[in-house]
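Lab channel / #folding
Pinned by the channel admin:
"Please post every new chain as: sequence first, then the structure tokens as a reply. Keep commentary short and put observations after the output so the thread stays searchable."

First post following the new format, from NK:
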Amino acid sequence: MRAYQEGQDKKLMQVVCNKCGRKLRMENGRLKEGCFCGDTVFGYFSRKDGMIHHFDLCEDCYDEMVAQFAVPVEEQTEVEML
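Reply from TO:
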């Protein structure tokens, strides 16, 4: 869950893990630790037609979630991080 400063610039103020509720480390409006950001739009043939879901997971909760997958996540190495 993300909280932004009100106003024109909409500076990121806080990120909270939707699973465990922990506030992720922020510094000067920047996230300073690993975070999985989930965004999806449910379309036709879904039980959630037209709904949009957004959520954030800390790295520990992400690791817990993917450990339960029957098919492992595909991993690649990023060679250039911004």
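NK: The first helix runs from residue 59 to 67.
TO: also worth noting, DSSP finds one helix and six strands in the chain.
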